[in-house]
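Section 3.1: Structural characterization of target chains.
Under the original work plan, the team committed to producing a structural model for every single-chain target entering the pipeline before any wet-lab resources were allocated. The record below documents one such target. The sequence was received from the expression subgroup and is listed exactly as submitted; it comprises 384 residues.
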Amino acid sequence: MLRRARISVSLVFLIHGILVSNWLSRIPAVQAKLHLSVGILGATLLATAAGALIAMPLTSKLVGRFGSARVTRVSTLLLCICVVLPGLAWNTPVLAAALFAYGAAAGLMDVAMNTEGVAVEAAYSRPVMVGFHALFSFGGMIGSLMGSLAAGYAIEPQWHLAAVGGALAAASIPVCRHMLVNASEPLPDTSSTRELLRPLIGLGLVAFCILLGEGAMADWSAVYLGQLSSPGVAPLGYAVFSLSMALGRLRGDWFHERLGSVATVRWGSAVAAAGLGIALLADGVPATLAGFACAGWGFSAIFPILCSVAGKKAAGKPQAGIAAVSATGYLGFLVGPPMIGFLAQASSLRMALLLVAALSGLASVMARVARINSRDVLPGPRVP
């Protein structure tokens, strides 16, 4: 039963990654279809963030009432539907509304599936959370490849996204059948909002620093590498970063189990900071790519661990802790890229990206906020 639940949650994370990356890969096609300028497109894409940031706190209440298993099932189907909507938009306001709905569904699914992941991890009594996020990363790679093929064959976004959404909606029905329903039953509200949020403030700040770095790498790594080399080499920056992060997540639970939450967050942040420092201060493409790979590896396990710790610290309401930390981290992911752009305009892109290295170092210093208990390990018997 427990093994089936772990497989079920893993596949949900995979589905989430495939859905999100399929949409992201078709943004250029939708931009061309609606004749949007870069500025208008950027402003419209903020609707996705608005939807997610509004939905995440609401998800906490829904999970508390209906349980994470049921909300995960419903939100997965909802995201499969909403991923189709941006491809159907015929003007900018409709696209903004579609992206708001898509962002809300994605935020809903994100909190629900992470809450279910925390329940499975608690049942295993050993770290498994980072492995779930590894499946999300590999889902992102699969979805990006699917989107690239669809664009290469000039398939219209609405047909491509409808096919993906329909296929994954059908697949999600059997996938979600083995969730840990009893592990996600609502618990009584015995704590105030202040008592709930106090232990999460530090976790939220670390999540903000780490996801700001991930967002900056997504938007600016190719631009930075393009300044050092040819346009053909530029995309390798984010490709190396993403692959290193995915591979790091495959081993993240191993490190988490042996080192504990605090040490894994501390050393992961330090490796990311050092890697970015190497990438930005050393000359040459090989050194830059090596630094980006270190950053990806360092970042890989941190956010999943923060979600896991937040779920355990949230006074018997794991969904509320995950929602708070996820929303704060997601805010960093959103504000990071434009912040880097403004700083680059004022100085240089290299100097602006050094801020990411500095924030990664700050996360390393703050790693003690990820402590769960005196031993900083998950107690109880091991489950294979």
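The first helix runs from residue 2 to 25.
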